[in-house]
Amino acid sequence: MTYRDTAHTNGYEFTQGAGYALPEYPFVEPPELRDGRRAHHPIVIVGAGITGLTLACSLARLGVPAVLVDEDNTVGVKGASSRGICYTQKSLEIFDRLGIYERIAAKGIRWSVGRTFAGEDEVYRFDLRDQGGFGLSAQPPFINIQQFYIEGFLVERILELGQVDIRWKNRLVAFEQDDRVATLTLETPAGRYTMQADHVIDATGSASPLRKWLQVPFDSKRGDDRWCIADVRFGTRPPLERHTWIEAPFNENRAVWQHLMADDVWRIDYQMAPDSDPAYVSREDVVRERLERQFGRGVDVDIVWVGPYAYRSECVHAMRQQRVFFMGDSAKIVSPFGARGGNTGVADADNLAWKLAAVLRGQAGPALLESYQDERLEAARENVRVTNRTARFLRPADGVERRFREAAIALAKRHAFARPLINTGRMAVANAYHQSRVCDDSPGSGESTQNVALRWLDGRVGRLNDLLGWAGTDLLLLVFGPLASTERRRVRALAASAPLRAVQVLDRRAAPQAMEAVRDPAGHLRQTTAAPAGGWALVRPDGYVAATGPAVDTDLVRSVARALALEEQTA
Question: What is the Cα–Cα distance from 316 to 339, expressed in whole angstroms?
Fold first, then answer.
């Protein structure tokens, strides 16, 4: 079977508007065609969307060579919309480690407040800065920015770092694998060639050809909810806050989303009738009439892009098949509520990158790669479950679901206790890993840290990401408080025998007893790692806590072995 056999329409055939100007990257003849040889690569990534580019950039930062192929020669989708726009604090922390956060922050729109209305009544309001310690991180709760900007920044950064060979206009047309190797056949403007790989990452998206060729089983659910996006630029600006209407009087009492993005462009999502004709609802005159109903007759607006969409949810039964790893929309598809689509793909890439690096360098056991499935399949299933619940609230079935929604809205108009029942999207957060073979049951294990502040010994302000960047692919051991001489010897011996960097964490005045030490005057490092007083926390390169403990003893040694899937070797 070939890629073309499984190709599908991208769903943008009814789009309108001037669209976005996307960069185009040159095709370079692959060395396999120039030299007439079949090359063997440790890692080949198929698909240069946000997920594949994040993985490629993560590998490049860690010094791991890889090849990234894509059938197109640009970021985003030609003729398509802004696509994903809301990027979570966890994704922004990942982008900070990759070196592109400042570019995103300079271009995008920060936000934390959301307001939801039913008619003229506000029925729900939140400020993410007040929830879950969002305020401890250097990164804000959310930044709105068009997805193609982030993809472009990732391409720039990959080119700066080296290590990864990006091959544009390289289309995967055939694939096979066995116990020894995977073989990929690619078609280019200069001809067809093959290459081999130890590990293949499928980041091709929702129409994954690899998933179809390999006959990967998955669960799927498709609803009849229909929406129409309008990306517009106003002469007069609506409010800066994120507004949603669960019942918008200017949209036949259907839902509406309103988000500001980069370049003063607003993304407005209108819920349509289930039987809507996509060609009709996306016509420019119909869209302008819709905008006038919301913003007033004669509104000064430039239509950048318009397109209808429907959604479905899917989730594979396994994130890996032999040498192929599935990530992003190749592994799961969620309805677009709560920003759990692209952000999940970014987290998939961040999770797998350090594990591939550690295994390829012989620092970890092969079973570490199996933990990718443990952790990210759990996350995928949770995100599908949460977004499906939102979808049912926004388009309830007749009967119990509809009566629940009507009761929730009626109560929320009058009583604060009912407002959390209004479900227009539970905003994405870093998923916890409760089923991972490389995490234990200690406090904080399997939870994500935040990029909290710390102090270097000279008084300068640093961040947890600085320590993670220094550690690279090694585990980061944070030891809190003074150390007895026996504990110091154990830490030194462990750091000398395992891929681990150790840092002593002190209060404001304690004298350092180790070469590497920082201060935690506000206690944020200990708070974000859930370490016990006078204990330790083992933090992975992706910022997740592998384990915590009260004392530097054999439990710490076992935790290091478990975090790297080396338990059998150390038994």
Answer: 20
Residue found under tokens 């959390």: 420
| Residue 216 tokens, joined | 């990967």
Please tell me whether the overall predicted TM-score, pTM, comes out greater than 0.85 for this model: yes
Residue the block writes with tokens 């905008």: 291
CA distance 384 to 221: 10
Looking at the DSSP assignment, which residues form a beta bridge with residue 505?
Answer: 480, 518
User: Does residue 42 contact residue 248 with C-beta atoms inside 8 Å?
Assistant: no
Who's near 81: CB < 8 A, 6+ residues apart? 12, 15, 20, 229, 231, 305, 307
Q: Alpha-carbon distance 303 to 300, whole Å? A: 10
Q: Are 89 and 143 in contact (CB under 8 A)?
A: no
- For residue 396, what are its two tokens? 């309830």
Cα 47 to Cα 49: distance, rounded to the nearest angstrom: 6
Cα–Cα distance between 82 and 100 in angstroms, integer?
Answer: 19
3-state secondary structure 68-82: EEECCCECCCCCCCC
For the stretch 324-375, pLDDT in tens is 999 999 999 887 777 788 899 999 999 999 999 999 999 999 999 999 999 9
- Structure token pair of residue 346: 């970014």
Quickly list DSSP for 83-96: ---EEEHHHHHHHH
Say if residues 512 and 533 touch (Cβ distance below 8 Å).
Answer: no
CATH 3.40.30.10 fits 453-570, yes or no: yes
Whether the Cβ atoms of residue 270 and residue 230 lie closer than 8 Å to each other: yes
Tokens of 439: 């995490």
Torsion of CA 394, 399, 401, 403, to 10 degrees: 90
Q: Where are the beta strands (DSSP E) in 17-151?
A: 40-46, 66-70, 86-88, 109-111, 113-118, 121-127, 142-144
Q: Which residues contact 191 (CB under 8 A, 6 or more apart)?
A: 33
* pLDDT interval class at 8 (50, 70, 90): very low
Residue 416's CB: how many other CB atoms inside 10 A? 10
> Can you read off the two tokens belonging to residue 219?
């669960």
